[in-house]
Amino acid sequence: MALIRTKGLVIKEVYVDDADKIITLMTEDIGKISVSARGARKNGRQAYGTQILTYGQYILYKGRNSYSLNGCDILTSFFDLANDLERFTYAAHMMELASDACTDDQTTGRVLNLLLHGLNALNKGREPMLISSAFSMKLAQVCGYPPHVTSCANCHTKELETIYFSFKKCGFICEVCAKNDGDALPVTIGTAKAILHVLCSDQAGVFSFNLSSENLERFSDISNRYIAERFDKRYEKLNYLKEIRQVSYHLGGE
After folding, report:
1. What is the DSSP letter of 148?
2. Is the pLDDT of residue 244 over 80?
3. Could you tell me the sign of the dihedral formed by the alpha carbons of 53, 55, 60, 64, in that order?
4. Rounded to an integer, what distance in angstroms lies between the CA atom of residue 91 and that of residue 51?
5. What is the pTM (predicted TM-score) of this model?
6. What is the pLDDT of residues 61-118, one digit of tens each?
7. Is the DNA repair keyword given for this protein (predicted)?
8. Which contacts (CB < 8 Å, 24+ apart) does range 151-155 have?
9. What is the pLDDT of residue 162?
10. How far apart are CA 195 and CA 214, in angstroms?
């Protein structure tokens, strides 16, 4: 078996028995892979190095059809996010999106880099809805689905005094075209600037902005729906978070 060194993030761990686990590793150079970690639940270093939300240097044996863990060193752990239900839920949502985006080795490396920047922002206490929404919008661009934002996506006029976001046309449309698109959402200047910032920034700068509560809600609605439609999948984790908030709100009002 060949010995391989790679850096990667643990995005999933499954316990096999009392001693072993299988992890899903998103790597910088060999794609998204499944790794058998024998004894990892009892070996101190490997136990921590194979926890979800751990970014590390991994030494792997590559067999004919599988990988197995030989050793690991932790570079960064985002596991403390698990102590906060809201932040952990957003982190889990981002990891699910990232996993779905890993279609080839080259894309996986870019997605991993973006995900690490996003998790780092979450870990520093940034607004989780903003971080997750910005991640979703940038991820769509990384995967080749950037929304059209330089003119009206329908008639191509650059005179956009009032802006709408069209999911049918995948981008900004003007007020005239919006009259024939009942599904389009009105976009404030603040929300439009946020979308432009995310698309025009490099991955390190994607999350360096703030939004008012009203603009953030609309930015989140657009980003979450846009990425879900591009990936053709319903993402339920954030709905779970909304349900928890509603229950907490009603309990608090009693």
Report:
1. B
2. no
3. positive
4. 14
5. 0.93
6. 998 888 999 999 999 999 999 999 999 999 999 999 999 999 888 889 999 999 999 9
7. yes
8. 152/177, 154/181
9. 94
10. 15
CB 81 within 8 A of CB 87: yes
Name the token pair of 223. 């980003």
pLDDT score recorded for residue 103: 83
**What is the Cβ-side half-sphere exposure of residue 33, based on CA atoms within 13 angstroms?**
24
What confidence tens digit (pLDDT) does each residue in 21-54 have?
999 999 999 999 999 998 877 767 788 899 999 9
Least confident of 16-25, 137-146, 234-243: 234-243
Q: What is the rounded CA–CA span in Å between residue 124 and residue 132?
A: 14
Strands 32-37 and 67-77: parallel
Delineate the domains of the chain, giving CATH numbers in brackets.
2-77 (2.40.50.140), 85-253 (1.20.1440.120)
Instruction: For residue 230, give the nearest of 157, 171, 163, 162 by alpha carbon.
Output: 171
Can you tell me the distance from the alpha carbon of 181 to that of 66, in angstroms, rounded to the nearest whole number? 49
Paired tokens of 123: 């870990």
Contact, 36 vs 67, CB < 8 A? Answer: yes
The secondary structure of residue 168, as a DSSP letter, is: T
Amino acid letter for position 64:
R
Q: Which residue has the tokens 């080839």?
A: 104
- pLDDT the model gives residue 22: 94
Q: Who contacts 110 (Cβ-Cβ below 8 Å, separation ≥6)?
A: 142, 203
Residue 14 — φ and ψ, nearest 5°?
A: -130, 125
